[in-house]
Amino acid sequence: NRGQRPPPGAKAPPCDSYGDVNNDGWVSQGDRDMVFSPGLGTFTLEQQRRADVGYYGIVYPLIFVTTVHYYLSGEIDTFPACHLRPSPCNSIGDIDRDGLVTNKDARLVQYDSITNPPLSGEDRRRADVNGDGTIDYADRQLLEDYAGYLTHPYIDTFPACQSAIACPTGYLYNGSTCVPNETPQTLLP
């Protein structure tokens, strides 16, 4: 099908081949139908990579369908997978240690309370992007805002990067030194 006219309402992939799951050269309703139909587990690794438009390391059919809908309707002009960025400071946000802050990192924060084993000390330091000494929904939201949830990234740094002093997990920077955080850790919903 490559080189032929695009299907109605189709667009070229914004980068690489993200969104073009059926490999016809276009992001279209056909790709949305393919991902949102039964049989996702039978996709090739390449099809799974193309469908991971949010760069989660896993395909979320609803996120794919929603993101592609916004792309085809013109509400967005790219996918989060097209804007991979490194940590803005001290590896903050790069929980999986791949050199990038992505929605895969946000997913690790989301599942921190149920993963086995939970995040390590260094990973917890990296995950505490708001610098409040806890790993919770607020950190996940900031990670998604930095990585770009359904659209372009919303923020360029994290609150934890604002301080020149990086406090260990469980401590907050009060403007002059690191002090113990007395706030109990909140579990994610």
Automatic annotation (TrEMBL):
Q: Which CDD domains match?
A: Dockerin_I (cd14256)
Q: Which SUPFAM superfamilies match?
A: Type I dockerin domain (SSF63446)
UniProt keyword annotation of Metal-binding present: no
Keywords recorded for this protein, A-Z: Membrane, Transmembrane, Transmembrane helix
Which segments cross the bilayer? 53-72
Pfam families in UniProt: Dockerin_1
Bias (Pro residues): 1-11
User: Which residue ranges does the record annotate as region Disordered?
Assistant: 1-23
Ranked from the top, the taxonomy reads: Bacteria, Candidatus Tayloriibacteriota
Q: What is the protein's name according to its record?
A: Dockerin domain-containing protein
Name any Gene Ontology BP term. polysaccharide catabolic process
MF terms from GO for this chain are: hydrolase activity, hydrolyzing O-glycosyl compounds
